[in-house]
Every structure is written in C-alpha cells, then in structure tokens.
Amino acid sequence: MTVSVKACGLSDVGQSRSHNEDCFAIDAEHGLFLVADGMGGHGHGEVASQLAIEAIRSAMLENEGRPGGANASAEGIQPHAARLAAAFRAAHNTVVHAMREDSTLLGMGTTAVGCAIHNDIAAFAHVGDSRAYRLRDDELELVTEDHTWVNEQVMAGYLSADQARSHPLKSVVTRAIGGDREIAVDVREIEIRNGDLYLLCSDGLNTMLSDQDIHDHLAADGSLEELCHKLVDAANERGGLDNITVLVLAIGS
Ligand code: CA
What global pTM score does this model have? Predict the structure, then answer.
C-alpha cells in the first residue's frame, strides 16, 4: 500500500521564554518527521535540539535502503523502525561528543520524538517528554509514554495523573539525548490508516492544553496550517510558559 502523507509544522517561542530551544524537521520525501526540545543554559538547548535533529536525519539517510541490521530481527521490528532507533542513538553520541569537544556546552541535552513512515507502517521513536498522539475514529490516543519522573510515579501508582500535572517536579525528564547515561529509545510501530491524524509536539503544548483540548483541535475541520496555528495560539492563550512546537501528519486525505 502506498500512503499519501501531508505534513505541517510550527514552532513558537511562547510567552515567557527569550529563546526557542525547540526544533522540528519535515522530510516528506523520506517520510521522516521530527520534533526536539532542547535544554541547557545560555541558549545551548538550541544547539542540542538542532544537532540531534540533523544527526537523526543524516543517520536515516545514510542507512536508507539498508536493512535495519541485527537489531531489527533481535527487536522483532521493521527495518525502518530499527533504523530510527539507531539514528536516535547516533544523535545521542553526536551531542555527547559535542560536549566533550566544547566544555561550555556541558549540561545540554534534548528530548526528541520522531516518526518514520514506510509503506503502511509508521515507526515512532522517542526519548524524554516530547509526545506523539493519534486521532483515529474521533478518539485521541497518546502514542508515547513520557520519560519523566512524575510519569514513573504515576505508573507505579504513587501519583495520580492530576497530581502529576501540577507537581513541582513535572518537568524532570529521566531520559534525554545527551544525558549522562546510555540512551534507551522507545520504539512503537503503528499500522496507519487513511484518515489517521498524528501530532508530534513538545511539552510546551501538552502542559498548556488538556488531552480534550488537543482532541477538539485535531477533530475540527480546517487545513493542517490552520490546525498548527490554532494549537500554538491556544497554548499561548493559556500562558505559553514554554516553547511550543507542533507537527501534524494527515494520512491519505
Ligand atoms: Ca519544553
């Protein structure tokens, strides 16, 4: 099955930050879509998110057409899903290497979420709290699981989802590209269908808007450009406390 994918993205500094440390990329030709949310003082978050996005893109292009390697069969996933996970690991090495080369960059890192589409399988990879959502049959599903301290507490039953939303440690991520540990990348594959809508976003969107708000925007009529602007505007109207990035994919429409 050959699927048609339309994509649109928008990134905004928000209402309270001086820099936009988010970054996104749309490579429709290769079916690759990325959002990264950088962190680090002195504007170095921007460096981290851009480095990571470039590294993921170049690793995917280098390995295009190659099988996913031993990892694909070992992990039981599609070759392009294995390549995406490997590209995230390559980005981690790139960011760590940049900090070794330039000590003023120490402490930078970035979250990232990516989608690679091949035939009718969308592979999602993520590290940190950047998210992917799917709208199908008017139902919104969170595709990714935040790598945050509060989400770990929710999973373990120590915090409710509501408590997590307002917790003082809600922005502490437990995994990041450029973090001090070996990186573990979560990968998920979804068989896409005509009419599916996918949203990749940085936490500046979903900390300002509820899942119900996000659902209502995705379910509304309008072009993808209008949808991106409405999501960003809504997050800004709620305070825009962080950089806001959205990337929307419409399948087969
Ligand atoms: Ca953020």
Answer: 0.94
